[in-house]
Design goal:
Shape: elongated
Structural class: mainly beta
Order of helices and strands: HEEEEEEHEEEEE
Strand content: over 45%
Strand order of the largest sheet: 1-4-5-7-8-9-10-11
Number of helices: 2
Distance between the termini: 29 Å
Number of strands: 11
């Protein structure tokens, strides 16, 4: 039995070894942008972790990103307090969001799409992330997505008015990736 397992392991090792794994290194960013009453604003999450396994040659891998919602900031104290509150991120009640992708496709222009699921405020919905992959000793993944905030109950009550606060929130990321193996 051991010989059979050892033999099968020989075939499994190349597949694991061929998909490099990474974590987010210093210089990585996760941002968002929207507008309020016609005035654009941007923000960022200062604390997040990213476990990335990706092979651009085969467009295969896994993204697992955990976002600490309490680290959201827009450099406006009043707006930041509102964002962390129960009507928006509810950082006290649901302190983390998570993005997981296991399916990818390569676009004709060399970019990729991660067909991932965002879980925010206990709601899980598909959110595709379009990204570029710059190879190197520390690869860079730069991507963007559009998140429909109301689908995740972000901005409830009076904030649900899309004439004042549009439903679509742009999310951008630039991950400087450090190999883990």
């Amino acid at each position: 039995m051991r010989a059979l397992l050892a033999f099968l392991a020989l075939f499994a090792l190349p597949a694991v070894a061929s998909t490099p794994t990474y974590t987010a290194a210093a210089g990585s960013t996760l941002g968002f942008g929207a507008s309020y009453d016609g005035e654009a604003f941007t923000g960022r999450f200062d604390r997040f972790s990213a476990d990335i396994a990706f092979d651009p040659a085969t467009a295969a891998g896994r993204f697992d990103v955990v976002i600490e919602l309490g680290s959201a900031g827009t450099d406006n104290d009043e707006r930041d307090e509102t964002l962390l509150g129960a009507e928006f991120f509810d950082a006290a009640g649901t302190p983390q969001a998570r993005y997981v992708a296991t399916r990818f496709r390569k676009l004709d222009d060399g970019r990729f799409v991660a067909e991932g699921v965002l879980t925010l405020r206990g709601i899980a919905k598909a959110v595709p992330l379009t990204f570029t992959w710059t190879a190197g000793a520390m690869p860079v993944l730069a991507g963007s997505a559009s998140v429909p905030r109301l689908a995740f109950n972000v901005g409830t009550g009076d904030w649900a008015d899309t004439a004042v606060l549009p439903d679509a929130v742009s999310v951008t990321t630039r991950l400087v990736l450090q190999p883990t193996r």
